[in-house]
Design a protein that fits this description.
Four Helix Bundle (Hemerythrin (Met), subunit A); mainly alpha; two-stranded antiparallel sheet; single chain
Length: 188
């Protein structure tokens, strides 16, 4: 099921990356660029929920969709973090933690699937919480202004992205602990 509606929505997240990055090279004011990038990120991040919902509702779940969905999420988050590092809104250390964890856990999941132990690193609520905090922090940092004249999105986004970094490390430790018995059994 390569071209189903859910899969096309997932592809849209990947296509969104150059759009979000490209906004910052357009001849717009800083506030207009921030707003455009924020709206794009929020719209395309929402497709993550929508594609899963539609895949279940339309009975269009597929192995390819299950593979592509987390890849699209990781690309979108990683590209956004790199833009934010470039703009000086996210510390490079935070970006390295988040992106490094995604690479490490993706590799761990691939290996665990290869040895038939993928259930030991199945998605956990801690990983979902980490993702939720990231998805709240990134648009706040992209916007980087006063929302409704009250909320300083830069400050809130910074606190949330650091919280996401802590949750990122915590969830990585959790997944590694879950995988450790299988790793020990396979490396003896």
């Amino acid at each position: 099921m390569f071209l189903t509606i859910p899969t096309l929505l997932t592809w849209a997240r990947i296509v969104a990356i150059p759009l979000i990055v490209g906004v910052f090279y357009m001849p717009l004011s800083g506030a207009e660029r921030n707003l455009a990038a924020t709206v794009l990120f929020v719209v395309f991040a929402a497709t993550d929920w929508l594609d899963g919902y539609l895949a279940r509702k339309l009975n269009q779940s597929s192995a390819f969709g299950a593979f592509l969905d987390p890849v699209a999420d990781k690309f979108l988050v990683s590209a956004s973090l790199l833009v934010l590092v470039h703009l000086g809104r996210v510390d490079v250390f935070v970006a390295l933690i988040i992106i490094g964890r995604e690479i490490a856990i993706s590799a761990l999941r691939e290996w665990m699937a290869h040895i038939g132990a993928s259930s030991s690193v199945a998605v956990h609520m801690l990983g979902k919480l980490k993702t939720t905090v990231q998805m709240l922090a990134i648009p706040l940092l992209l916007y980087d202004g006063r929302l409704f004249g009250v909320l300083d999105t830069g400050v809130w986004g910074t606190w949330l992205i650091w919280l996401a970094a802590v949750l990122t490390v915590w969830s990585m430790v959790y997944y590694l602990q879950r995988a450790l018995p299988e790793i020990r059994a396979r490396t003896r």
